[in-house]
């Protein structure tokens, strides 16, 4: 029986879910919510103010106590819209990871939407297969169309309950004019995706997360709806808020005091979604992003990693020579196995990154042979890579660009500091693997023996093979010069 934990660093609240996996059955055993209001601390220059950082670190410290006995492979922690928008946030992320005791990933908006849909799909068993899922967060709103467990259209919009409340109701006053202005702003955000969503259609609209659950609770308590959200009930709630006039005068049974301060903005967004998408009724899901993270982890445990499917789809789309990519991958893993201990590349994440880069290293040939390493890096960095965090995507793009030609000093500086050394070493292994397979020979390439120091490698080859491949020998000599700018040495090639 294995325990898994998911941590969602949302723009309004931080959430943690702990589940127990027993013979393929998942059982939620604990939930913790901390109203951090991170988005409220996002300044005009993109920095996070000190009070919001302090609230975040205190909350993560409490989460960390609960996760003290969890291994790295049992926990996924992700940051969403506010941390995507925050500038110069690396020092805070380091402190946050230290407080939690686990690494924190920043995920793209489309990946957030995919995970939300995955979580909702597992929480609404028996619902019609074609669904519209809406999740109003603190800093963004996700709208997803899906069939069964697969999201087929995902949209992450830059509007959330914290930002909209701050923009339109900052002094606590609620009026018809302010509500209409907020709804108009939300409608403008929806405009670019409205036609695409309505064209695909859906059998049932489902809402997720705090704002939508709060609306459903209020409508139920008031007798304006029964377990769902209706357009009629939403209009009555909107009028009740305008009649109250101010945030502090809101007396709505079912509204949590922690949510009161961001509720008007969330309601305006939901009302606009009902209006623009012509929704009459919305069901409410008990699950969302953090449950999606848990189910995604279960998929990885059972070798159903969505990242592998993404790489396969890219390989097919760009007509990559699969047999050659597989040979480069096999060589790369053979080299990695020899240096994993010396170079501290024992994490599954290291092997995954090397595999994905080996599979995609020739993706740029779809653009042009000349500079194909640069074209390939751009394609990887700019594509929607389902399942990948922002740093994972950047790492693979960096490896793809670095698989050939000279490397400049500072090449790895764009990566987070904690990834730079691993990236340099993985790049060396990928370059050697590509070099050894340059002939594209379907016969297996003999893997040289490696002896690794911190920034150097000694390679030992089979004498007959190397003498029969003079081009490889010449390439290895050039490679010695190519690696010098990044402070790495190939110390020579012994024969046996």
Please write out the topology.
Elements: E1 2-9, E2 14-22, E3 25-34, H1 50-66, E4 75-79, H2 81-85, H3 90-100, E5 104-106, H4 109-123, E6 130-136, E7 141-147, E8 150-157, H5 161-168, H6 176-200, E9 204-208, H7 210-222, E10 229-230, H8 231-244, H9 257-260, H10 263-276, E11 281-284, H11 289-301, H12 306-317, H13 322-339, H14 348-360, H15 372-382, H16 390-401, H17 417-436, E12 449-453, E13 456-461, H18 463-467, H19 470-483, E14 489-495
Parallel strand pairs: 1-4, 4-5, 6-9, 9-11, 13-14
Antiparallel strand pairs: 1-2, 2-3, 6-7, 7-8, 10-11, 12-13
Helix pairs in contact: 1-3, 4-11, 5-10, 6-10, 8-10, 13-14, 13-17, 14-16, 14-17, 15-16, 16-17, 17-19
Q: What would you note in describing this structure?
A:
It is a single chain. With 496 residues, this protein is an alpha/beta fold. It has three domains: 106 residues, Nucleotidyltransferase, domain 5 (2-Layer Sandwich), CATH 3.30.420; 181 residues, Nucleotidyltransferase, domain 5 (2-Layer Sandwich), CATH 3.30.420; 191 residues, Hypothetical protein af1432, CATH 1.10.3210. The protein contains 19 helices and 14 strands. The protein has a six-stranded mixed beta sheet, with helices on both faces. Strands 3-2-1-4-5 form a five-stranded mixed beta sheet, sandwiched between helices. Strand 2 and strand 3 form a beta hairpin. The radius of gyration is 26 Å and the shape is elongated. The mean pLDDT is 93.
């Amino acid at each position: 029986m294995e325990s898994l934990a998911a941590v969602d660093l949302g723009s309004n609240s931080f959430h943690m879910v702990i589940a127990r996996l027993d013979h393929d059955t998942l059982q939620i055993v604990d939930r913790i919510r901390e109203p951090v209001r991170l988005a409220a601390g996002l300044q005009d220059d993109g920095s996070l103010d000190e009070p919001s950082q302090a609230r975040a670190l205190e909350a993560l410290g409490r989460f960390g106590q609960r996760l003290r006995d969890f291994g790295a492979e049992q926990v996924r922690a992700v940051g969403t819209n506010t941390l995507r928008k925050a500038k110069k946030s690396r020092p805070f992320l380091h402190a946050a990871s230290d407080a939690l005791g686990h690494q924190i990933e920043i995920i793209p908006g489309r990946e957030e939407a995919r995970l939300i849909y995955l979580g909702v799909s597992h929480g609404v068993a028996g619902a019609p297969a074609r669904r519209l899922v809406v999740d109003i967060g603190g800093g963004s709103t996700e709208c997803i169309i899906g069939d069964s467990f697969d999201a087929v259209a995902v949209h992450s919009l830059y509007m959330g309950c914290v930002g909209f409340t701050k923009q339109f109701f900052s002094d606590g006053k609620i009026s018809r004019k302010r509500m209409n202005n907020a709804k108009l702003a939300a409608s403008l955000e929806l405009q670019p995706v409205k036609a695409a969503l309505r064209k695909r259609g859906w059998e049932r609209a489902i809402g997720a997360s705090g704002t939508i659950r709060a609306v459903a609770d209020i409508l139920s308590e008031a007798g304006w709806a029964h377990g769902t959200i209706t357009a009629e009930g939403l209009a009555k709630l909107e009028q009740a808020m305008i009649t109250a006039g101010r945030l502090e005068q809101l007396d709505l049974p079912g509204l949590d005091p922690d949510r009161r301060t961001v509720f008007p903005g969330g309601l305006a967004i939901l009302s606009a979604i009902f209006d623009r998408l012509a929704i009459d009724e919305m069901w409410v899901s008990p699950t969302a992003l953090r449950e999606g993270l848990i189910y995604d982890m279960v998929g990885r445990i059972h070798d159903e990693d969505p990242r592998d499917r993404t790489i396969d789809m890219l390989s097919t789309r760009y007509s990559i020579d699969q047999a050659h990519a597989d040979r480069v991958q096999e060589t790369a893993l053979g080299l990695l196995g020899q240096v994993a201990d010396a170079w501290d590349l024992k994490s599954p994440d290291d092997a995954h990154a090397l595999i994905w880069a080996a599979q995609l290293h020739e993706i740029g040939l779809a653009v042009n042979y000349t500079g194909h390493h640069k074209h390939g890096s751009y394609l990887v960095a700019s594509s929607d890579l389902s399942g990948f965090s922002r740093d994972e995507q950047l790492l693979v793009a960096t490896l793809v660009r670095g698989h050939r030609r000279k490397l400049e000093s500072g090449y790895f500086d764009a990566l987070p500091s904690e990834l730079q050394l691993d990236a340099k070493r993985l790049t060396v292994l990928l370059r050697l693997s590509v070099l050894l397979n340059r002939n594209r020979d379907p016969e297996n390439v003999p893997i040289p023996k490696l002896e690794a120091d911190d920034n150097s490698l000694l390679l030992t080859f089979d004498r007959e093979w190397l003498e029969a491949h003079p081009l490889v020998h010449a390439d290895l000599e050039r490679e010695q010069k190519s690696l010098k700018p990044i402070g790495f040495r190939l110390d020579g090639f012994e024969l046996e």
